[in-house]
Amino acid sequence: MSNITYVKGNILSPTISKKRIIIHSCNCLGTWGGGVAYQLGQKYPKTELEYTKICDYFSNDDPRKLLGNFVILPSFKDSKTLIGCLFTSLGGGGSHDSASSILENTQLSLQKLLKYIQQGKKYCAPPNSPSKQVSINTDVFETKAEEEEIGLKLLLELMNEQYFSQFNEIQDLKHFELEMPKINSGIFGVPWENTEKILEALPCDITVYDL
Question: Where is the Macro domain (predicted)?
Answer without folding.
Answer: 1-211
